[in-house]
């Protein structure tokens, strides 16, 4: 009967929330004023002001939009196969999807972080997370391509990730699902959660020159769920803050059993103290691990995988001054830090208020030992001792907060479907606008930096209902752009997004576009299979492997006639685009290929493996429209029976072999 009571309570709550979600907010028809289109309009031939990097959610990709137009500029493949660009299909990119579980062709990309210098975006890299198979990726903003992916051991879900310190010293990740760690015996009863399940915070160092990542250390904590995080800045630089839930340490029916406590916690981590403990030798080296580190080299245009087996672990329960808990209204989702670093905003998603904590008061509370006991060996700071104040009755279901740099904050509310603007100092609500519908994350350009660029805020909504033309049971995800340059927030644009948009960040386009790479210099191509001119185009047999060194230029491949391939052969098409002109990619596909195509940039080499399964003549062609004679950019490859005496020949512009009847 008790289980039934819990289920009925959960159903009642779900019904209430769905009622909020399905209802159109008041004033919907009047929400957009007459000058909205003008504010969002970007004339033909003009550039957007901002690059907007938006997570693709369950697509596993990263989307790039222009603001204020909302135009989709690019989809960057990261954790999921992308046949459009050959990502994960070419021999050069397959290693990027390698993990300790093997080649994983999909993941769930939730959060986005642009690299920072002195607390402001520097436009060098974008870091994103894989939630399912825990990984962090680094995207290079000179090429807008994924340059590196690092798997995280001892983690069961990677949601609270990949948040970065103010000088990109570390990219930090908290495990979403506490689990028995990899270096322990994981064959334990699930209901032994409190005894055997552990939380892990991973601190990944970033090379300041080239961006290369390395798992510097991990912090082991009591078993809870980590939701989101933010680094301190300014006065709080050297600290990190994580929202936690399931302090009940439940392992079943979490919608009920992980919502019993009135308060969960924000975990405050002193990472400068962690560095001190590491130097003092207080970390434990764990060596029976396996995790993948994948890197992509833009000189050879190819990736490699290195498997690592060690990390260093600090135990938060044993090391004094490393971690502290701050009570927060139950089930907090977002935790955000204002531009000065003084104010830490918690968002209990089941609460009807917003607590704002003071870093200065937190420090005084620690010094004065104003604790109310411990959780898992970690001190709990008294709520009132760290609290600056509460924003009362701001809305229902606060999730995330961004800052405008003018002393104000804007918070998203999922249940009441709105954005609410409030003043950080007096905690008074200034303005509110409805969203359509059930907003999750929101984004102000630079909203997590020391100097926000507060012209717009974007709401990323979970539900759209009637906002776009219907497309069957699944509707497009939604983003809504608001002008916040004045005292009042004004909705000026709706635009659909790929996947499920979670987190996003945006920065001034001028800081990125001038650094954008236009071509790869052909003379710098170090791919061992590159053919840097048509004179180097050829076909070679090595046992049952046939290597086709193919060049592509407007509007032909060299060679374009290939014979002497037999059933049982593995054919490797090494395609080099020998163009040296911007915006001149070439594609490559062959009939019957079971993987994908290639999309090859100027000066680049990519390889497609093809195993023919029948005798015949198969066409191959360019898939990317490149010239008026694009349709003529094709070739043929002949497959003969195994043991055939047809010689291996290749040609361009000449019919070979001479006796075509053979």
* Count of β-strands: 47
Helix content range of the residues, please?
under 10%
Class per helix and strand makeup: mainly beta
State Rg. Answer: 27 Å
Strand content: 35-45%
Give the strand line-up of the largest sheet.
Answer: 6-7-8-9-18-19
Q: Please, what is the CATH homologous superfamily of the largest domain?
A: YVTN repeat-like/Quinoprotein amine dehydrogenase
- The CATH class assignment of the largest domain is Mainly Beta
Topology:
Layout: H1 2-22, H2 36-40, E1 50-55, E2 61-67, E3 72-77, E4 98-99, E5 102-103, E6 109-117, E7 120-130, E8 135-140, E9 145-151, E10 160-164, E11 170-174, H3 193-196, E12 198-206, E13 213-222, E14 225-231, E15 239-245, H4 254-257, E16 263-270, H5 271-279, E17 284-286, E18 291-297, E19 302-308, E20 311-315, E21 323-329, E22 332-337, E23 343-348, E24 353-358, H6 359-367, E25 371-375, E26 378-381, H7 383-386, E27 387-392, E28 398-403, E29 408-413, E30 418-423, E31 429-434, E32 439-443, E33 456-461, E34 477-483, E35 490-497, E36 504-508, H8 510-513, E37 538-542, E38 545-553, E39 556-558, E40 561-566, E41 570-577, E42 586-590, E43 598-600, E44 605-610, E45 616-621, E46 634-640, E47 649-651
Parallel strand pairs: 13-20, 38-41, 40-46
Antiparallel strand pairs: 1-2, 1-36, 2-3, 4-5, 6-7, 7-8, 8-9, 9-18, 10-11, 11-12, 12-13, 14-15, 15-16, 16-21, 17-20, 18-19, 22-23, 23-24, 24-27, 25-26, 28-29, 29-30, 30-31, 32-33, 33-34, 34-35, 37-38, 38-39, 40-47, 41-44, 42-43, 42-45, 45-46
């Amino acid at each position: 009967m008790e289980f039934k009571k819990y289920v009925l309570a959960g159903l009642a709550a779900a019904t209430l929330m769905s009622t909020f979600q399905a209802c159109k907010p008041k004033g919907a028809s009047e929400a957009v004023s007459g000058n909205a289109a003008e504010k969002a309009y970007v004339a033909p031939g003009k550039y957007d002001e901002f690059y907007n990097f938006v997570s693709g959610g369950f697509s596993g990709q990263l989307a790039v939009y222009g603001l204020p137009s909302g135009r989709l500029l690019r989809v960057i493949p990261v954790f999921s196969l992308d046949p459009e660009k050959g990502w994960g299909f070419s021999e050069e990119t397959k290693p990027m999807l390698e993990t300790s579980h093997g080649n994983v062709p999909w993941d769930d990309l939730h959060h986005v972080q642009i690299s920072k210098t002195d607390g402001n975006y520097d436009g060098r890299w974008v870091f994103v997370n894989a939630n399912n198979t825990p990984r962090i990726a680094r995207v290079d903003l000179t090429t807008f391509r994924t340059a590196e992916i690092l798997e995280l051991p001892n983690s069961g879900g990677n949601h609270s990730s990949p948040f970065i310190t103010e000088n990109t010293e570390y990219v930090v990740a908290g495990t979403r699902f506490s689990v028995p760690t990899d270096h322990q015996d994981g064959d334990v009863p699930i209901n032994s959660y409190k005894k055997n399940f552990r939380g892990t915070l991973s601190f990944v160092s970033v090379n300041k020159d080239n961006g290369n990542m390395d798992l510097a250390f991990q912090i082991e904590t009591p078993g809870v769920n980590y939701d989101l995080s933010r680094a301190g800045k300014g006065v709080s630089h050297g600290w990190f803050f994580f929202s936690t839930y399931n302090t009940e340490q439940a392992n079943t029916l979490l919608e009920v059993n992980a919502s019993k406590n009135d308060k969960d916690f924000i975990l405050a981590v002193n990472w400068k103290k962690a560095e001190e403990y590491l130097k003092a030798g207080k970390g434990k080296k764990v060596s029976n691990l396996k995790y993948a580190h994948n890197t992509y080299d833009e000189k050879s245009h190819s990736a490699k995988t290195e498997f690592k087996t060690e990390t260093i672990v600090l135990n938060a329960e044993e090391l004094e001054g490393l971690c502290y808990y701050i009570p927060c209204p139950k089930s907090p989702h977002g935790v955000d830090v204002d531009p000065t670093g003084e104010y830490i905003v918690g968002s209990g998603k089941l609460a009807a208020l917003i607590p704002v904590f003071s870093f200065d008061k937190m420090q005084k509370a620690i010094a004065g030992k104003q604790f109310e006991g411990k959780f898992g060996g970690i001190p709990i700071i008294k709520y009132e001792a760290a609290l600056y104040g509460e924003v009362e009755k701001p809305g229902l279901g606060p999730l995330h907060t961004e800052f405008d740099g003018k002393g104000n904050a804007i918070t998203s509310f999922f249940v009441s479907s709105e954005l609410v603007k409030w003043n950080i100092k007096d905690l008074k609500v200034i303005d509110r606008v409805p969203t359509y519908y059930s907003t999750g994350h929101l984004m102000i350009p630079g909203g997590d930096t020391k100097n926000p660029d507060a012209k717009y805020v974007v709401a990323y909504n979970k539900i759209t209902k009637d906002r776009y033309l219907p497309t069957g049971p699944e509707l497009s995800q939604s983003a809504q752009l608001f002008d916040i340059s004045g005292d009042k927030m004004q909705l000026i644009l709706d635009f659909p997004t790929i996947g499920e948009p979670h987190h996003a960040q945006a920065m001034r386009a001028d800081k990125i576009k001038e650094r954008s790479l236009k071509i790869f210099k052909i003379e710098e191509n170090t791919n061992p299979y590159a053919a840097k001119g048509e004179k180097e185009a050829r076909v070679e047999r090595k046992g049952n492997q046939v290597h086709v060194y193919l060049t592509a230029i407007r509007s032909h491949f060299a060679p374009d006639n290939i014979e002497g391939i037999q059933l049982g052969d593995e054919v490797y098409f090494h395609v080099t685009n020998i163009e040296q002109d911007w915006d001149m990619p070439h594609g490559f596909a062959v009939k019957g290929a079971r993987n994908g195509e290639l999309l090859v940039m100027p000066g680049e080499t990519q390889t497609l493996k093809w195993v023919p399964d029948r005798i015949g003549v198969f066409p191959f062609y360019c898939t990317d429209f490149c010239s008026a004679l694009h349709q003529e950019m094709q070739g043929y490859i002949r497959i003969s029976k195994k043991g055939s005496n047809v010689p291996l020949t290749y040609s361009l512009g000449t019919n070979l072999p001479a006796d075509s009847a053979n």
